[in-house]
Specification:
By secondary structure, the protein is α/β, with parallel strands linked by helices. Helix content is 42%, strand content 13%. It has a seven-stranded mixed sheet, with helices on both faces. It binds pyridoxal-5'-phosphate. The site of pyridoxal-5'-phosphate (PLP) has 10 residues, from loops.
């Protein structure tokens, strides 16, 4: 919600948001919803590369594009699993200052370092130019939908107004639950337990990747958080392969969902936070098998995709027979989290101009509001 609010506050259609490449799919969805253009800044194993940031900003300036903010996940990145090196942090803030660009620091995983280390928040180093987003989703309960924002005073006031216009008030009962939990439970001890669990699962995943993955694959080594970012050999299309992986009963998030510009077809995000170490090892073993078959097919027939031939594409979709083995497999694949696509473009609800005309209905306003279910749809 805070991501949505900040984007709503700052972005008009066509404004640029800089974001690491890859970046969190939920954030990219918010940026798309407000018709902001995302310019990705490449990372390496130490996170965002300052020279790449400088180059992206210079290019935007040259092209006359208005950059509103840099969106960054400095610690245990989702999906890349990397952490921004401490000695890069001041430089990144300095570059943003130089170009007069706000920093939006998203840090839901910061307390989940496997060795207990914490990193200096960008916000602590430049409080006047950084909006910081925190969350209880990864350290307490995601279902409560409680997080927090630290923002420069002027931004905070506008955020409160935007939040009131959207929901009147975030759920008070849930905030009370969080407050009580922090006051009466050993939450630091609980985080320590989480760290140990996740470290064991990370180790299981990295060990299995080393054991099973074919040559030509590479992956990141997270020091905290939930995710490993896997790169598969040239020619393999990770998105196309997903259906075959699901048939082998293993799933991943394909990399293209984490880019706004179509990159990521050779990447996938593997999450180790939920399954047990045994299931992680088995999942990686299955994934490696699917990948091996894919590479075999590639060697025989060239690049493999799931794109249907035109005749097949025209065929009306049929419902699977849930009693047949194939039907059961398909049902399973439908139950896997939807592959990440962009939500429909929604207008900026604070921008009257974007709601003045309804191209769908050809009227000056869509009545009742939102009836066209696209241009005039309101956001709740
Ligand atoms: C980088 C990042 N930001 C934000 C969120 C969402 O956090 P919350 O549950 O507080 O909305 C996630 C959840 O996966 C995330 O990975």
């Amino acid at each position: 919600m805070a991501l949505d609010m900040v984007t709503r506050l700052f972005c008009d259609p066509g404004d640029v948001v800089l974001a690491e490449g890859p970046s969190y799919v939920g954030a990219l969805g918010s940026f798309a919803a407000y018709q902001a253009e995302v310019v990705h800044v490449a990372m390496d194993d130490d996170g965002l590369v300052p020279d790449n940031l400088r180059a992206a900003l210079a290019e935007c300036e040259k092209a006359g594009k208005r950059v509103k903010f840099l969106y960054t996940i400095p610690n245990f990145h989702n999906p890349a699993g990397v952490t921004l090196a401490v000695d890069r942090r001041a430089e990144i803030l300095e570059i943003c200052r130089q170009y007069d660009v706000l920093v939006l620091e998203d840090n839901p995983y910061g307390l989940l370092a496997f060795d207990g280390q914490t990193y200096p928040a960008l916000r602590s180093m430049d409080p006047d130019n950084v909006v910081y987003l925190g969350s209880f989703s990864k350290t307490f309960a995601s279902g409560l939908r409680v997080g927090w924002v630290l923002a420069p005073h002027a931004v905070r006031e506008k955020l409160v107004l935007a939040s009131e216009s959207a929901t009147l008030c975030p759920p008070t009962l849930n905030q009370l639950v969080v407050s009580k939990y922090l006051a009466t439970h050993d939450w630091k001890g609980q985080i320590k337990t989480f760290r140990e669990n996740y470290r064991e699962r990370r180790d299981a995943m990295i060990g299995a990747l080393e054991q099973y993955m074919p040559a030509g694959c590479s992956w990141t080594h997270p020091d905290g958080g939930f995710y490993v970012w896997l790169t598969v050999p040239e020619g393999v299309d990770a998105k196309a392969m997903l259906a075959r992986a699901v048939t082998a009963r293993v799933a991943y998030a394909s990399g293209t969902g984490f880019y706004a510009d179509g990159l990521g077809s050779r990447q996938m995000r593997l999450s180790y936070c939920y399954p047990t170490p045994e299931r992680i090892r088995e999942g990686v073993r299955r994934l490696a098998g699917v990948l091996e078959s894919e590479m075999d097919l590639m060697r025989t027939f060239g690049s493999v995709t799931t794109r249907a031939c035109p005749a097949r594409r025209r065929r009306a979709p049929t419902r699977p027979d849930p009693t047949s083995p194939a039907g059961r497999r398909l049902q399973f694949s439908l139950a896997v989290p939807r592959s990440f696509g962009w939500p429909k473009v929604r207008p900026n609800a604070l921008s009257p101009s974007s709601r003045a005309d309804c191209p769908t209905n050809g009227t000056s306003r869509c009545a009742p509001a939102g009836a066209c279910r696209s241009h005039c749809a309101t956001r709740v």
